[in-house]
């Protein structure tokens, strides 16, 4: 077995455990923490905004560090920091303390979420990149499936503080040592070539001649309009993905029960999980088709939810289709960036583009709620659909420019 697949396992650990515990399990703490400490849900939830902001500030530095230093030890250190921050969440009794812990989580997530799988898969795979990325990001959903019930049981038995401690220890004692043991920076460090790279291809300086030295440098990228098209594409995709939080509320608002609203949320998550795997497979064959499916599917899904508000099956179908937009945030942005910019300075270029992902989450997570309060759920869904159409135009335009450049 090629060691590249061990790297995939490491990426799945970071996405499934570190990212899964940080994001997918965050919701189970809102009620017990706020009820116990007598603070508002909105005030507590701001730690997520602090986390996004911290990630945005750290990402450009993360890209530079990954160019100069060992990815093995950077990701191991980020995992350890992630575990410490989760433990700190269990110690806090004041809002400012949660914000400090949220900032530390943001620093760790800049590496573990935004830079881990794009950087490592790009380094270790010449073929099947899309599928491998799809598998890695799908692991975050699997982590939520496993750890949400565990966390809920611990909270019921021993309280929310113990749950945070257990989650932190899982990261510190479980994931972090495995990353230190198994991660490697480049296949050349082990006398290997990238998976899928023909053994007959000559290699110069650890790079396959005529193959993986293609693409633009970071200095060239920041002077190209297409680079900023990718930034806007990423910002819109992340911003629209947060509309997933409003689907259950809309379902209840049009007259369905809480249980039926939870089905709508589940339908969306099914779309997310399948979408991540299938988008990865599709992008290995045609990046254009991937852009169309994630943006077009998301836009159509939102429209179906609004038009079919009186019929639960249509809401479920719309939620499933919208899940492809959510999946596109992690899969499509990474694959589109590589397709347009190449692999030469991929880590640094994608780190800058990932700032737009983090910023999109920070702005939209509260922005859609304010717009919904001022207008209605259908207005934010239709606005999201229009935004996704714009993202699709930008993505297809970027691919066309890249094809012309070649």
Q: What does the main sheet amount to?
A: 2 strands, antiparallel
Series of H and E elements: HHHHHHHHEEHHHHHHHH
**Average pLDDT taken over every residue:** 85
How many helices does DSSP assign?
16
Strand percent estimate: under 5%
What structural class do the secondary elements suggest? mainly alpha
| Strand order across the largest sheet | 1-2
- Cα-atom Rg, whole angstroms? 21 Å
Q: How many strands?
A: 2
Distance between the termini: 35 Å
**Overall morphology:** globular
Helix fraction, binned, reads: over 70%
- State the low-pLDDT regions, or none: 200-212
What features would you describe in this structure?
This protein is mostly helical. It has helices at 4-24, 30-37, 41-68, 71-89, 95-112, 116-124, 129-158, 160-182, 218-221, 225-241, 247-253, 258-283, 287-307, 312-341, 346-374, 377-405; strands at 203-204, 207-208. A two-stranded antiparallel ribbon has the order 1-2. Helix 14 runs parallel beside helix 16 (377-405).
Q: In summary, what is this structure?
A:
The chain has 406 residues and is an all-alpha fold. 79% of the residues lie in helices and 1% in strands.
Question: How are the SSEs placed, and which strands pair?
Answer:
Elements (H helix, E strand, L loop, with lengths): L3 H21 L5 H8 L3 H28 L2 H19 L5 H18 L3 H9 L4 H30 L1 H23 L20 E2 L2 E2 L9 H4 L3 H17 L5 H7 L4 H26 L3 H21 L4 H30 L4 H29 L2 H29 L1
Antiparallel strand pairs: 1-2
Helix pairs in contact: 1-6, 1-7, 1-8, 3-5, 3-15, 4-5, 4-8, 6-7, 7-8, 7-12, 7-14, 10-14, 10-15, 10-16, 11-12, 12-13, 12-14, 13-14, 13-16, 14-15, 14-16, 15-16
């Amino acid at each position: 077995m090629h060691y590249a697949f061990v790297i995939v396992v490491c990426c799945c650990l970071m996405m499934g455990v570190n990212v899964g515990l940080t994001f997918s399990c965050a919701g189970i703490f809102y009620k017990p923490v706020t009820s116990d400490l007598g603070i508002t849900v909105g005030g507590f939830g701001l730690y997520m905004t602090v986390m996004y902001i911290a990630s945005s500030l750290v990402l450009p530095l993360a890209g530079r560090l990954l160019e100069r230093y060992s990815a093995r030890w950077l990701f191991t250190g980020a995992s350890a920091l992630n575990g410490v921050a989760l433990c700190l969440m269990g110690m806090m009794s004041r809002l400012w303390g949660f914000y400090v812990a949220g900032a530390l989580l943001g620093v760790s997530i800049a590496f573990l979420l935004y830079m881990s799988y794009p950087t490592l898969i790009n380094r270790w795979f010449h073929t099947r990149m899309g599928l491998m990325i799809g598998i890695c990001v799908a692991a975050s959903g699997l982590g939520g499936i496993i750890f949400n019930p565990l966390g809920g049981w611990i909270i019921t038995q021993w309280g929310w503080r113990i749950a945070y401690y257990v989650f932190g220890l899982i990261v510190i004692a479980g994931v972090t040592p495995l990353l230190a043991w198994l991660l490697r920076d480049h296949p050349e460090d082990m006398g290997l070539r990238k998976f899928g790279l023909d053994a007959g291809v000559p290699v110069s300086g650890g790079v396959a001649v005529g193959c993986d030295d293609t693409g633009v440098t970071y200095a060239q990228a920041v002077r190209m309009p297409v680079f900023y098209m990718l930034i806007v594409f990423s910002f819109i995709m992340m911003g629209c993905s947060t509309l997933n939080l409003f689907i259950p509320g809309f379902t209840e608002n049009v007259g369905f029960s809480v249980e039926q609203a939870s089905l709508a949320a589940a339908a969306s998550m099914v779309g997310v999980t399948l979408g991540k795997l299938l988008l990865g497979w599709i992008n290995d064959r045609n990046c254009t088709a991937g852009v169309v499916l994630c943006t077009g599917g998301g836009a159509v899904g939102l429209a179906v939810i609004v038009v079919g508000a009186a019929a639960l099956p249509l809401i479920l179908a719309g939620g499933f289709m919208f899940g492809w937009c959510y999946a596109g945030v992690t899969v499509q942005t990474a694959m589109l960036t590589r397709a347009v910019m190449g692999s030469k300075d991929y880590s640094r270029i994608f780190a800058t583009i990932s700032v737009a992902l983090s910023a999109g989450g920070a702005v939209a997570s509260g922005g859609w709620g304010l717009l919904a309060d001022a207008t209605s759920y259908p207005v934010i869904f239709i606005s999201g659909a229009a935004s996704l159409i714009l993202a699709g135009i930008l993505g297809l335009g970027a691919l066309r420019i890249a094809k012309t450049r070649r």
